[in-house]
Amino acid sequence: MIICLDVGNSHIFGGVFDEDRLRLRFRYPSKQASTSDQLGVFLKGVFHENNLLPSEVEHIAICSVVPSLNYSLRSACLKYFKKEPFILQAGVKTGLNILTKNPREIGADRIANVIAAVNQFPDKNIIVVDFGTATTFCAVRAGLDYLGGPIMPGIRISMESLHSQAAMLSPVNILAPQQCLGHTTSNNIQSGLYYGQLGAVREISARLRTEVFQGDKPVLVGTGGFAHLFESENIFSTIVPDLVLHGLRLALAKNTVY
């Protein structure tokens, strides 16, 4: 079995693979500092609650955009699973031609997403839209050329910003509204959050299609925790909520002899 861990700014999103089959998923908050013991006990608890044996873990793969958690997480892997984790970072094999000005500043989660998308759609122009803490766009030109892409505040960050900066605007449940014009302040915040993201996806994707792909229509892949909200909009070629985990598994395979 393989544990894959995507360490984001809000959660550690994890999965356990049996060969190429994703057996389970789990989340752990990443906003507060955690010791190696807290992380290790949590991970072992996930296994025990799902009737899996920690002793059957062969590899652990990690991508992280939270450097402060990396030491504790690596220590947890060593202490509780006796495994040195594979870290998706600059210098490892990805199979991509990274054509940005400074490849080292690209989030490892973005690279993992692209690895998985390219594996699913070989020789295609691709845009990956990840609805996480930030909403990110990754443009990939057929031939494995990773070009980068825009970054904007995610839907939850946008809501929290409204609440923190406007005294009379309260937090709301994030959902797909039934109509654009709401009848309450909460309805209108929900509408603004949802259609703001939807409009940004349409506009940014259209501009990337013109600027990067010379008008050719790329495969548009949605992923991340809020991607499911947009399933009925028919803007995505496919939605793969676990894309980053599959990309991590594939990156591990490129860098490890099983």
* Low-pLDDT stretches: none
Supply the helix-strand structural class: alpha/beta
Number of strands: 12
Radius of gyration of CA atoms, rounded to a whole number: 19 Å
The count of helical stretches stands at 6
Tertiary shape? globular
Task: Using the 3D structure, state the CATH architecture of the largest domain.
Answer: 2-Layer Sandwich
What's the pLDDT, averaged over the residues? 94
Strand content: 15-25%
Sketch the major β-sheet.
7 strands, mixed
Helix-strand topology string: EEEHEHEEHEEEEHHEEH
Helix content estimate: 25-40%
Termini Cα gap? 11 Å
Topology:
Elements: E1 2-7, E2 11-18, E3 21-29, H1 36-49, E4 59-64, H2 67-81, E5 86-87, E6 97-98, H3 108-120, E7 126-131, E8 134-141, E9 145-148, E10 151-153, H4 155-165, H5 185-211, E11 219-223, E12 238-239, H6 243-255
Parallel strand pairs: 1-4, 4-5, 6-9, 7-11, 11-12
Antiparallel strand pairs: 1-2, 2-3, 7-8, 8-9, 8-10
Brief overview:
The chain is α/β, with parallel strands linked by helices and 258 residues long.
Which descriptors would you attach to this protein?
single chain, 258 residues, alpha/beta, Nucleotidyltransferase, domain 5, 2 domains, 5-stranded mixed sheet, 36% helix, 24% strand
Describe this structure in words.
The chain has helices at 36-49, 67-81, 108-120, 155-165, 185-211, 243-255, and strands at 2-7, 11-18, 21-29, 59-64, 86-87, 97-98, 126-131, 134-141, 145-148, 151-153, 219-223, 238-239. With 258 residues, it is α/β, with parallel strands linked by helices. The protein has two domains: 2-87, ATPase, nucleotide binding domain (Nucleotidyltransferase, domain 5), CATH 3.30.420; 97-247, Nucleotidyltransferase, domain 5, CATH 3.30.420. The strands form two sheets. Strands 6, 7, 8, 9, 10, 11 and 12 form a seven-stranded mixed beta sheet that branches. The protein has a five-stranded mixed beta sheet with strand order 3-2-1-4-5, with helices on both faces. Strand 2 and strand 3 form a beta hairpin. It is globular, with a radius of gyration of 19 Å.
